[in-house]
């Protein structure tokens, strides 16, 4: 994908993504995937045929790429063909790969407490507490600004979440106390959790490393990531009998089906359901009137 051959096409695709307000990272990823396709073709991607698209998907499968990567590539090519090239016929040659849904890893409340207690640095303890206490994605935690914390209304304003959507989540008194301790100690300006140079925000990589380190120190025998805290937040709310539609809003999910996944791992809620076998047994045991 040489600059001479592809520059006008690349610029057009950037404009198409800009019109639709794609995030900078999304634009970068889309351009890279189209570049990978061009490298495979060994010519400009706007010359691709239906057979080229079919062979490229076979190439990805043979290369052993994961299902998420394969589907992300399909999404990118569909946008490129349909929007930038106006070639809807090529879109029909692409196919998403179906993968059995996996149950998310969820920590118990006791495990979450052990993990947070194991965090030595106040900044990371506060950041991880936000992830669990408000159910935020790692990208949303590092993007928080001091002004997003509204202690009067006891809410947190999440800006530019997934899909560039805004939403509000609750601010617990305990979390507010922890954030005030962090603010008093560091006096952050702008970003709530600044990086090493204080001008930029903390990176998601830094926070993920802190999460993994805390899980190791707490000796939690499960694979733990930042998203595990978000999964645990949703599951624990469901086990508290919070309406699933409220949880959907707090998580910023566009579809209720995504949130409904947590009903499959909310073990306390499942344990409280009476089996129909027990109901039959109870009925048979009742004395006749």
UniProtKB/TrEMBL annotation:
Which GO BP annotation is one of this protein's?
DNA integration
| Record protein name field | Phage integrase
Domain named Tyr recombinase: which ranges?
Answer: 102-275
Q: Cite the entry's keywords alphabetically.
A: DNA integration, DNA recombination, DNA-binding
Tell me its family: Belongs to the 'phage' integrase family.
- GO MF annotations in UniProt: DNA binding
Identify the species of origin: Nitrobacter hamburgensis (strain DSM 10229 / NCIMB 13809 / X14)
- Domain Core-binding (CB), chain residue ranges per copy: 4-85
From which lineage does this chain's organism come? Answer: Bacteria, Pseudomonadati, Pseudomonadota, Alphaproteobacteria, Hyphomicrobiales
Return the InterPro entries for the record.
Answer: CB, DNA_brk_join_enz, Integrase-like_cat_sf, Integrase_catalytic, Integrase_recombinase_N, Integrase_SAM-like_N, Tyrosine_recombinase_XerCD
What SUPFAM superfamilies is this protein classified in? Answer: DNA breaking-rejoining enzymes
